[in-house]
Amino acid sequence: MMEKVIIIAEAGVNHNGDLEIAKRLIEVAAEAKADYVKFQTAKVAKSVSKYAPKAEYQKVNTGKEDESMLEMVKKFELDKEFHIELINHCAKCHIKFLSSPFDIESVELLNDLKIDLIKIPSGEITNLPYLKKVASCGLPIIFSTGMADMEDISKTMNVLFDNGVNKDNITILHCNTEYPTPMKDVNLQAMLTIKKEFAVKIGYSDHTLGIEIPIAAVALGAQVIEKHFTLDKTMEGPDHVASLEPNELKQMVTAIRNIEIALGDGIKKVTESELKNKNISRKSIHLT
After folding, report:
1. How far apart are CA 239 and CA 62, in angstroms?
2. What is the crossing angle of helices 189-198 and 150-162, to 10°?
3. Strand, helix or coil for residue 265
4. Distances in whole angstroms, Cα of residue 179 to Cα of each of 55, 145, 249, 271, 285
5. Using alpha carbons only, how large is the chain's radius of gyration in Å?
6. How is residue 53 annotated by DSSP?
7. Is the overall model pTM greater than 0.85, yes or no?
8. Helix-strand-coil percent breakdown of the chain, rounded to 5?
């Protein structure tokens, strides 16, 4: 029997800077029985250039061509008090809180708030000072690979190793940075390449539409699944369109749990259900 897959329901910035929406997202993730609900933590002025343009999908999804990346993400910045409210609400709803830090100060904030693991966003895995700071926290680490190639991943691993992180505490997520990701670009087998090359736990951070790909990833051996969700795909914001709605999130979690059971232990044998329902004994089974 495989280990229980960790399912991260990615709220991301789909709270739109509104605490009540964020709390409702937590409730939806808990109702779906995800393991974690994840947000994003950043000191925006320190991590985003005022000259940085939005990605094309963000321009399309927000309908705001002239808005800069900084202007957009500033609306989603969460202060310490907002984090504490979310953590307390997670405890009330019996789901674990998680957030991706995008800068060193945010790593320090989350560590001070006693999170139980750190999720590194793909854009930071080549950020050497950041990686050293993450390693110093002594927590399990999950990192997405985004546009990184195998050499980039190897360098990231070496930095973590050199700063005291044990391989058993690292999970690498294959992913694609397009929102939504076209099926032709998913390349799920790259997840298996990562596992073979680095001998670590693997998973998939999914940006496709629908729930087929995370389910397939689990069947291939993913131990962590991360998937964006929202209250309503028609809400204003950059990520809502490529996110699951509450009923879809529930369907994904249920399907993943069924796949875990169905994968079994790999031993070919007659099951107790077969014996009971066919009213036969093991001794009567023979080849014909």
Report:
1. 9
2. 40
3. coil
4. 10, 15, 17, 43, 52
5. 21
6. P
7. yes
8. 45, 15, 40
Structure tokens at 202: 């693997």
Count of H-run helices and E-run strands, the chain: 12, 8
pLDDT at 54: 46
Query: Are the CB atoms for 57 and 207 separated by under 8 Å?
Result: no
The CA–CA distances, whole Å, from 144 to 82, 138, 203, 261, 262 equal 25, 19, 9, 26, 27
Whether 16 contacts 75, CB under 8 Å:
yes
Element (H, E) at 162: helix 150-162
SS3 of residue 282 by DSSP: helix
The total number of residues written for the chain in this structure:
288
Please report the beta strands in the chain, taking only residues with DSSP state E, as ranges in sequence order.
6-12, 36-41, 96-101, 118-120, 141-144, 170-175, 201-206, 224-228
* CA 110/CA 97 separation, integer angstroms: 10
The pLDDT value given to residue 288? 47
Secondary structure (3-state) at 179: coil
The overall longest dimension of the chain from CA atoms, in Å, is 76
Q: How confident is the model at residue 271, as a pLDDT? A: 85
Segments of the chain with pLDDT less than 50: 51, 54, 288
The count of other CB atoms within 10 Å of the CB of residue 162 is 11
Q: Quickly tell me which residue has 């927590």 as its tokens.
A: 139
Judge whether 82 and 110 are in contact, CB under 8 Å: no
d(CA 148, CA 132): 18
Residues 6+ apart with CB under 8 A from 196: none
